[in-house]
């Protein structure tokens, strides 16, 4: 898909796309997030799908897979896509 066609699709869609990827890096997630992903490293097979699918690019894989909660929006896509169920969505106040 060309960039202009991609932009056209984004503009015409009513979904919650973040385009370009990482554009919200200047915006910290506020206190409005009610669910957050928790990664169980014992179950993680390092496939990289969460890193690929996170729309906000908040998962890093430099040393190990880590979620940056400063930017994570709590959408749950990473948990949905994880093939080993290594990511669970939990309530913010469940610590
Ligand atoms: S999708 Fe799941 S198994 Fe794959 S790297 Fe992410 S946490 Fe690990
Ligand atoms: S919950 Fe959404 S924003 Fe947060 S790490 Fe997972 S995919 Fe990214």
How would you spell out the order of helices and strands? Answer: HEHEEHE
Share of helix among residues? 10-25%
Show unreliable segments. none
Task: Give the CATH class.
Answer: Alpha Beta
Question: What is the CATH topology classification name?
Answer: Alpha-Beta Plaits
Number of domains: 1
Count of helix runs? 3
Helix and strand composition category: alpha+beta
**In angstroms, what separates the terminal alpha carbons?**
43 Å
Biggest β-sheet strands, sense, barrel: 2 strands, antiparallel
Q: Which architecture does the CATH hierarchy give at level 2?
A: 2-Layer Sandwich
List keywords for this structure.
two-stranded antiparallel ribbon, alpha+beta, 95 residues, Alpha-Beta Plaits, binds iron/sulfur cluster, single chain
Summarize the structure.
The chain has 95 residues and is of the alpha+beta class. It has helices at residues 3-12, 49-53, 77-81; strands spanning 35-39, 59-60, 66-67, 87-91. The structure holds iron/sulfur cluster (2 copies).
Record the SSE blueprint:
Layout: H1 3-12, E1 35-39, H2 49-53, E2 59-60, E3 66-67, H3 77-81, E4 87-91
Antiparallel strand pairs: 1-4, 2-3
The structure holds iron/sulfur cluster (2 copies).
The site of one iron/sulfur cluster has 13 residues, from helix 3.
Account of the 3D structure:
The protein is 21% helix and 15% strand. It contains 3 helices and 4 strands, in the order H-E-H-E-E-H-E. The chain has helices at 3-12, 49-53, 77-81, and strands spanning 35-39, 59-60, 66-67, 87-91. The strands form 2 sheets. A two-stranded antiparallel sheet has the order 1-4. The protein is globular. The N and C termini lie far apart (43 Å). It binds iron/sulfur cluster (2 copies). Residues 37, 54, 56, 58-59, 67, 72-78 line the site of one iron/sulfur cluster (SF4).
């Amino acid at each position: 898909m060309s960039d202009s066609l991609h932009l056209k699709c984004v503009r015409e869609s009513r979904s919650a796309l973040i385009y370009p990827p990482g554009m919200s890096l200047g915006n910290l997630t506020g206190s409005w997030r009610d669910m957050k992903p928790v990664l169980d490293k014992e179950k993680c097979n390092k496939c990289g799908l969460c890193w690929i699918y996170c729309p906000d690019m908040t998962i890093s894989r430099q040393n190990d897979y880590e979620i940056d909660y400063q930017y994570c929006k709590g959408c749950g896509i990473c948990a949905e896509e994880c093939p080993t169920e290594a990511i669970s969505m939990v309530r913010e106040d469940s610590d």
